Every structure is written in C-alpha cells, then in structure tokens.
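ingest -> validate -> predict -> emit
validate: passed (alphabet ok, no gaps, 141 aa)
predict: started
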Amino acid sequence: MSENKDDKIEDVLVDSELAKKLVPNKFKFTSQQGRARRQKLLMGAKKLSETQSINDITLAAVCEEAGIPRASAYHFFPNIEAIFLALRFLNAIDILDVLRTVETVKYDRWQGYLTALIDRCVQIFDEDQTKAKLIYDTNTP
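emit:
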C-alpha cells in the first residue's frame, strides 16, 4: 500500500462518518508509528484472506500475523469487521484507479467502453483474489 493510499484512508477516517464506524477518536491516526501499525494490521488481514475464508479470520489471528499486540490493535480498529471495511475501502480506491485508465476515446459506442470496463474488472480480480473475496465472499463482514 502506498503512502498516497494511506493518506487517502486517513483523510476519510478523519473527515467522514466512516471514522465513527472504524475508530471513534480521529487523533489516533496522527502518529507515524500509528500509521505503520494500522498498515501492518491491514496487510496482515489481506495476507490471511489469501488462504482463509474471511469469515474464519479473527482479530487475534490478524494481530499475530501483523506482529501487533491485540490491546494495541483496538486503538486502530474496534473489531475485525472494521479492518475488512477499511480493506474494502482501499480496494475500491485501487479498482477505481485502474478503471480510470480505460480511455473513452478508444470506443465509438458505449457498449465497447462498458465491455472494456468489465474486462478490466475481471483482470483485477484474477490478479488479486482477495479483492474478489471482499466483495463476493458469502457473509463477508
């Protein structure tokens, strides 16, 4: 995850209603160490979701994977659902960034453009199965 994406999620967490769902105290996102720990938790959850069903992943497992004490993790995410909500948000940013590269001028009809967008989505999900899991997995938190 690039620093740019980390800045985007921090902006959303500080300035929107999403902040109330993820962490009630916006000031917990200001330190460099805090950003690094939050990123480790997100990457730990993403790594675990590569091999496990999202419904089987616990906050304790994510903390262990990330090397972050569970008591510390609660400062960033109140529960596992909040971690996956943040991952969904980051995935949406990634997907939209890729879809923006599909140029409309290459198509003379909207059907061709729509087909190109769908093809690009298929490519995205083929390259990163965790993105598809977060969207389509049954009972995803």
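The chain has one domain: 3-136.
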